[in-house]
Amino acid sequence: MSLIGDGLDAAVQKAFTRPAPKSAGAQMRYLVKQLGGTKAVAQMLRVSQRTVERYVKDQIKKPRPDLAARIEREVKARWQPQIRAKARAKAASTGGIIIDTRARLGYTAPIGSTDQDRIRHLTVALPPVHAARLFDAQEQGASDARLQEIAAEALKEVYFQDGGRRAGSLEEVRFTDIEHLEFDL
Prior knowledge:
Blueprint: H1 3-13, H2 24-35, H3 38-45, H4 49-56, H5 65-78, H6 81-95, E1 97-108, E2 118-126, H7 128-139, H8 144-160, E3 172-184
Antiparallel strand pairs: 1-2, 1-3
Helix pairs in contact: 2-5, 3-4, 6-7, 7-8
Protein backbone atom coordinates (compact mmCIF):
# COMPACT_ATOMS: atom_id res chain seq x y z
CA MET A 1 0.00 0.00 0.00
CA SER A 2 1.44 3.39 0.91
CA LEU A 3 3.59 4.85 3.66
CA ILE A 4 1.08 7.46 4.83
CA GLY A 5 -1.96 5.22 4.27
CA ASP A 6 -0.34 2.41 6.27
CA GLY A 7 0.55 4.89 9.02
CA LEU A 8 -3.04 6.09 9.27
CA ASP A 9 -4.29 2.49 9.40
CA ALA A 10 -1.79 1.64 12.15
CA ALA A 11 -2.96 4.64 14.20
CA VAL A 12 -6.59 3.56 13.91
CA GLN A 13 -5.68 -0.04 14.80
CA LYS A 14 -4.34 1.17 18.16
CA ALA A 15 -7.97 1.89 19.08
CA PHE A 16 -9.02 -1.76 18.73
CA THR A 17 -10.56 -3.17 21.89
CA ARG A 18 -9.69 -6.81 21.16
CA PRO A 19 -6.69 -8.29 19.37
CA ALA A 20 -7.22 -9.67 15.90
CA PRO A 21 -7.00 -13.48 15.47
CA LYS A 22 -3.40 -14.69 15.43
CA SER A 23 -3.40 -18.30 14.20
CA ALA A 24 -3.89 -19.07 10.52
CA GLY A 25 -6.97 -21.22 11.27
CA ALA A 26 -8.66 -18.51 13.35
CA GLN A 27 -7.85 -15.86 10.73
CA MET A 28 -9.23 -18.03 7.96
CA ARG A 29 -12.43 -18.81 9.92
CA TYR A 30 -12.90 -15.07 10.50
CA LEU A 31 -12.49 -14.32 6.79
CA VAL A 32 -14.90 -17.11 5.83
CA LYS A 33 -17.48 -15.69 8.24
CA GLN A 34 -16.99 -12.14 6.94
CA LEU A 35 -17.10 -13.02 3.25
CA GLY A 36 -19.78 -15.68 3.52
CA GLY A 37 -17.96 -18.73 2.22
CA THR A 38 -14.72 -20.44 1.40
CA LYS A 39 -14.98 -19.74 -2.33
CA ALA A 40 -14.91 -15.96 -1.87
CA VAL A 41 -11.94 -16.19 0.53
CA ALA A 42 -10.08 -18.47 -1.89
CA GLN A 43 -10.57 -16.00 -4.76
CA MET A 44 -9.50 -13.06 -2.60
CA LEU A 45 -6.33 -14.80 -1.35
CA ARG A 46 -5.59 -16.44 -4.73
CA VAL A 47 -5.52 -20.00 -3.35
CA SER A 48 -7.73 -23.01 -3.93
CA GLN A 49 -11.02 -23.45 -2.11
CA ARG A 50 -9.73 -26.75 -0.71
CA THR A 51 -6.74 -24.96 0.82
CA VAL A 52 -9.08 -22.56 2.61
CA GLU A 53 -11.13 -25.50 3.89
CA ARG A 54 -7.96 -27.14 5.25
CA TYR A 55 -7.02 -23.99 7.16
CA VAL A 56 -10.56 -23.73 8.57
CA LYS A 57 -10.34 -27.33 9.86
CA ASP A 58 -6.79 -26.72 11.21
CA GLN A 59 -5.37 -29.38 8.89
CA ILE A 60 -2.80 -26.81 7.73
CA LYS A 61 -1.40 -24.63 10.49
CA LYS A 62 1.51 -22.69 8.98
CA PRO A 63 0.99 -20.76 5.72
CA ARG A 64 3.74 -19.67 3.36
CA PRO A 65 5.15 -16.24 4.31
CA ASP A 66 3.51 -14.44 1.36
CA LEU A 67 0.13 -16.06 2.07
CA ALA A 68 0.45 -15.34 5.80
CA ALA A 69 1.03 -11.66 5.03
CA ARG A 70 -2.02 -11.53 2.72
CA ILE A 71 -4.22 -13.26 5.31
CA GLU A 72 -3.08 -10.92 8.09
CA ARG A 73 -3.58 -7.82 5.91
CA GLU A 74 -7.12 -8.88 4.96
CA VAL A 75 -8.07 -9.70 8.56
CA LYS A 76 -6.76 -6.36 9.85
CA ALA A 77 -8.57 -4.50 7.09
CA ARG A 78 -11.89 -6.01 8.21
CA TRP A 79 -11.34 -6.23 11.99
CA GLN A 80 -13.68 -4.18 14.21
CA PRO A 81 -15.08 -1.81 11.56
CA GLN A 82 -17.27 0.09 14.04
CA ILE A 83 -14.35 0.80 16.38
CA ARG A 84 -12.30 1.91 13.36
CA ALA A 85 -15.10 4.25 12.24
CA LYS A 86 -15.49 5.73 15.74
CA ALA A 87 -11.74 6.37 16.04
CA ARG A 88 -11.65 8.11 12.65
CA ALA A 89 -14.74 10.18 13.48
CA LYS A 90 -13.29 11.25 16.83
CA ALA A 91 -9.98 12.26 15.25
CA ALA A 92 -11.80 14.15 12.47
CA SER A 93 -14.19 15.99 14.81
CA THR A 94 -12.59 16.60 18.21
CA GLY A 95 -9.29 14.81 18.80
CA GLY A 96 -7.09 15.56 15.84
CA ILE A 97 -4.06 13.44 14.99
CA ILE A 98 -0.40 13.54 15.98
CA ILE A 99 2.23 13.14 13.29
CA ASP A 100 5.76 12.10 14.20
CA THR A 101 8.11 12.25 11.24
CA ARG A 102 11.72 12.51 10.25
CA ALA A 103 11.85 13.79 6.71
CA ARG A 104 13.34 16.41 4.44
CA LEU A 105 11.27 19.57 4.75
CA GLY A 106 11.71 22.77 2.82
CA TYR A 107 9.55 25.57 1.53
CA THR A 108 9.14 28.12 -1.19
CA ALA A 109 9.28 31.65 0.15
CA PRO A 110 10.20 35.17 -0.98
CA ILE A 111 13.80 35.95 -1.96
CA GLY A 112 16.14 36.47 0.96
CA SER A 113 14.76 33.80 3.23
CA THR A 114 16.51 30.54 4.10
CA ASP A 115 14.32 28.06 2.28
CA GLN A 116 16.85 25.25 1.81
CA ASP A 117 15.48 21.75 2.41
CA ARG A 118 16.83 19.95 5.46
CA ILE A 119 16.12 16.85 7.47
CA ARG A 120 13.87 17.66 10.43
CA HIS A 121 12.35 15.53 13.15
CA LEU A 122 8.90 16.85 13.99
CA THR A 123 6.18 15.74 16.36
CA VAL A 124 3.17 17.94 15.65
CA ALA A 125 -0.45 17.74 16.78
CA LEU A 126 -2.64 18.37 13.76
CA PRO A 127 -6.12 19.81 14.39
CA PRO A 128 -9.24 17.77 13.50
CA VAL A 129 -9.65 19.60 10.17
CA HIS A 130 -6.39 18.13 8.85
CA ALA A 131 -7.12 14.69 10.29
CA ALA A 132 -10.48 14.74 8.49
CA ARG A 133 -8.79 15.70 5.20
CA LEU A 134 -6.27 12.87 5.53
CA PHE A 135 -8.88 10.25 6.42
CA ASP A 136 -11.29 11.42 3.70
CA ALA A 137 -8.57 11.31 1.05
CA GLN A 138 -7.48 7.85 2.20
CA GLU A 139 -11.08 6.59 2.11
CA GLN A 140 -11.50 7.90 -1.44
CA GLY A 141 -8.40 5.96 -2.51
CA ALA A 142 -5.97 8.85 -2.88
CA SER A 143 -2.43 8.01 -3.92
CA ASP A 144 0.47 8.25 -1.49
CA ALA A 145 1.65 11.37 -3.31
CA ARG A 146 -1.70 13.08 -2.68
CA LEU A 147 -1.69 12.05 1.00
CA GLN A 148 1.85 13.43 1.23
CA GLU A 149 0.65 16.76 -0.24
CA ILE A 150 -2.17 16.95 2.31
CA ALA A 151 0.28 16.21 5.14
CA ALA A 152 2.65 18.89 3.79
CA GLU A 153 -0.18 21.45 3.70
CA ALA A 154 -1.08 20.56 7.29
CA LEU A 155 2.54 20.93 8.43
CA LYS A 156 2.76 24.25 6.59
CA GLU A 157 -0.23 25.64 8.42
CA VAL A 158 0.46 24.17 11.87
CA TYR A 159 4.27 24.08 12.13
CA PHE A 160 5.65 26.71 9.76
CA GLN A 161 2.85 29.30 9.92
CA ASP A 162 1.70 28.50 13.48
CA GLY A 163 -1.96 28.96 12.58
CA GLY A 164 -1.38 32.27 10.76
CA ARG A 165 0.82 33.92 13.42
CA ARG A 166 4.03 33.82 11.36
CA ALA A 167 5.49 33.16 7.90
CA GLY A 168 2.42 34.54 6.12
CA SER A 169 4.26 34.78 2.78
CA LEU A 170 5.13 31.09 2.73
CA GLU A 171 3.95 29.61 -0.56
CA GLU A 172 4.62 25.88 -0.57
CA VAL A 173 6.13 23.28 1.76
CA ARG A 174 8.10 20.34 0.37
CA PHE A 175 7.78 17.12 2.39
CA THR A 176 10.12 14.51 0.85
CA ASP A 177 12.64 11.76 1.70
CA ILE A 178 10.53 10.42 4.55
CA GLU A 179 12.74 8.31 6.84
CA HIS A 180 10.17 7.80 9.61
CA LEU A 181 6.46 8.47 9.78
CA GLU A 182 4.02 7.55 12.52
CA PHE A 183 0.54 8.75 13.39
CA ASP A 184 -1.26 8.60 16.71
CA LEU A 185 -4.83 9.49 17.61
